[in-house]
Amino acid sequence: MSSLAVTASSHSSASAAIVYAALLDAESWPLWSAYADVEWDVPAGVDRPARVDDLRAIRSRIGRVCCRERVVEMVPGRRFSYEQTAGLFTSHRGSVDLTRAPHGGTDITWSATYRHTLSLLDMLRSRRLQVWVHDLASYANSTVSRKS
To answer: What gap in Å lies between CA 147 and CA 138, rounded to an integer?
Structure first.
């Protein structure tokens, strides 16, 4: 097994604040990602924004928990980083970086590092990450359109 670093980029006409909000909004993930559900693990009755060290469970469309992730860095409107704590590939760590684009909107760069990987999965992971970043940008664009 070897390691793998993957980076994918896209552009959104939305502000970084809107893109960042979509990343944190567990209810929006089924609208723009391949996942059916993202659920933050917070104590019952607690209603607060996500924060560093919070955990989330991500479920596939068939209802299985695909993985659990821990938030490792949050810089509102600029960066969201996580690491996988349980699942098939627990050595996965990812970051979504947001930068103001020179002509407006937000450039989104989603990067992920897998400490252990199989070469047969490398292309699939690269394609999947590109789809996620594109879908995130498209969702943020549609959010702006709905508010106009």
So the answer is: 14
The pTM of this model reads 0.86
End-to-end CA distance of the chain: 49
Q: List Cα–Cα distances, 90 to 25, 55, 69, 73, 94, in angstroms.
A: 23, 14, 9, 18, 12
- 63 within 8 A of 39, measured Cβ to Cβ: no
Which runs of consecutive H residues, i.e. helices, occur in 1-148?
A: 16-24, 29-32, 119-147
pLDDT (tens digit, 0 to 9) for every residue of the chain, 148 residues total? Answer: 577 899 999 999 999 999 999 998 878 888 888 777 788 787 666 677 788 998 888 887 776 667 888 999 999 999 999 998 876 655 789 999 999 999 999 999 999 998 766 677 777 788 888 999 999 999 999 987 776 5
Contact between 72 and 94 under an 8 Å Cβ cutoff? The reply is no
DSSP 111-139: EEEEEEE-HHHHHHHHHHHHHHHHHHHHH
CA distance 130 to 111: 10
Q: Which residue has the tokens 């760590």?
A: 93
